[in-house]
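name: query_chain
kind: protein
chains: 1
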Amino acid sequence: MNEKGLSPQHIELTSSEIGAIWATYMTESASKPVLTYFTHIVEDVEIKGLIDVALVKCKEHIGTLTEIFLKEKFPLPIGFSDQDVNINAPRLYSDSFMLYFIRQLGKAAIAAHGMAFSMSARKDLRDLYFHYLTEAAKIEEMAKEIELSKGLFIRPPYLGKTAEASMVEQQGFLRGWFGERRTLTAAEIAHISMNYMNNALGKSLLISFSQTAKAKEIRNHFIKGIEIAGSIMEVLRRLLEESSLPSPMTWDTEVTDSTVAPFSDKLMLFHITALNGIGLGNIGGSLALSMRHDLSAKYLKMIKDIGFYSEDSVNIMIKNNWFERPPQAMDRNYLSKQH
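structure:
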């Protein structure tokens, strides 16, 4: 009970809570068709078990979130349905690609549910997102264990051990524009590797989408995304090589040559728009933790390139009447002019 004698269920949802519930529903709705297709083409028994678990959780989440929308008298999002997937489409991805994709879903869910948990005030929503956060961590852990058991886990580069701790003595530690540059710090290496792997997976997904999209405009848009992801990977690869570190592998060969679309153009474009947002968030975090001037400049350019590409993605969705309006504040100025 709160100070007014009302149960938590009677407390109105805040803007952050409404936004989190809406975003979670849309993500789960978009994940369900993909996971459903995966269950029909996966061959490895262990990976299929993981996909089945992820699909069950996805369906449970959609059911719970639907109940919340109805209870709070908010309109249920349109989202996606079985019309957005063709489960009879030929195999487009290898088992290992699907495993990497599921782990990426888990990592993204950990970040999203963690933020939703921290921004929620109502006890029932805090409990819900704590539960979702735990489930996402378990999915990511399961995927990681399978990767390790099959020799598919990609480790970031190792560092040589130093003799003792020391202090930075010169401001040249921040230098990167001209002249000699220091080698990368452990945190910088971790973020470069993370962004490289994320773009490698995104590039492979874009390759599969460009092969199967029906509309020429959307196919060309995906091809443009492939070029942007490739240019980002090249910049990050060079940074690692400058510090005598190897760059991670790519997943381009994990996409088959099928041109039959398992997903609707609308669903594929939604996933790319979501990946754009995740990429911007990751690179923004990398920018904050990078202390070499040249790294900051490179990350800022990546943010600009991804930002413009993301805007193009949204514009295409709006033009095709595919961009669902998120919850937003009332336009008081508009309402005042309706009399």
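note: Residues 12-149 form a domain with the Ferritin fold (CATH 1.20.1260.10).
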